[in-house]
């Protein structure tokens, strides 16, 4: 792609943020530094990536989902739409699932196309972007914000999430207070950051209550209802089944409820179930689901706001944002009889 903004910044002895401000005629840069950066850019043949064609053209933000078939995704998107409207930018959503060959979302060809089209930045929801691609995006002035990243990232990318460890502990503490000791945990993908944090919250609560974790009651590998159903069926067929199950998400909890229904197990009389998310569907499940509420709409809103701030100042943020969770008690949990 030729000379990058990072190359100009390095040659001029300044940060990318300062170089970006100077070349885009923004404040906070002295005239002497601005002139030095401009001369360096000209001597190196730096061509900034395309921006809006006119001052009236609207910025465009792309939000990428790994799939889009859950209340979680819809709620996050709703928050992002609100923030985009408030900020006067266009929001384009796309999905990795079902990619056409040669047009894979998040492939290098796709990323180059976003830069060519002057996209203001990318929001990735529960998806993974390799460190090398994160660096490429940074060097080509394409800011990236992650929501609930599916795997750890070593490039200090800005991420938006909830207090997953605290939420996992809240859910487990609730079941322990109700007298449950045989508590199952239905997890998500092995490398998922939020799923891992919720599992650690579960383990911490059990340890503090001096209740050993039966590893046969820890299962699951996805965020889907089917994963929850399969894991719950295995647990409920054990000689000593759980009296309560904490599911890593509301979608997974839906699968747990289905498994209990298939086996004729009444909820909450014979099995208490807790989810995580509190998307709109949770209160309409049968019975209404006790769950840990994470502010999904706020996560979408903040992601858009932070992305636009990064587009103006690439060095402004380099740390995660965690929003508070809250336990919402409904009718799917009860005291152990």
Structure report:
The chain is built from 11 helices and 12 strands. The strands form 2 sheets. It has a 6-stranded parallel β-sheet with strand order 2-1-3-4-5-11. It has 3 domains: 5-44, no CATH class; 60-161 and 296-323, Response regulator (Rossmann fold, 3-Layer(aba) Sandwich); 164-294, 3-Layer(aba) Sandwich (Rossmann fold). It is of the alpha/beta class. The termini are far apart. The longest helix has 17 residues, at 71-87. Helix 1 (5-12) packs across helix 2 (16-23), helix 4 (71-87) crosses helix 11 and helix 9 (225-236) packs across helix 10. It is elongated and about 75 Å long. 41% of the residues lie in helices and 15% in strands.
The total number of structural domains is 3
Radius of gyration: 23 Å
Highest CATH level, the class of the largest domain: Alpha Beta
Tally of alpha and pi helices:
11
Strand/helix succession: HHHEHEHEHEEHEHEHEHEEHEE
Low-confidence stretches: none
* Principal-axes shape call: elongated
Going by CATH, what is the homologous superfamily of the largest domain?
Response regulator
Major sheet: order of its strands? Answer: 2-1-3-4-5-11
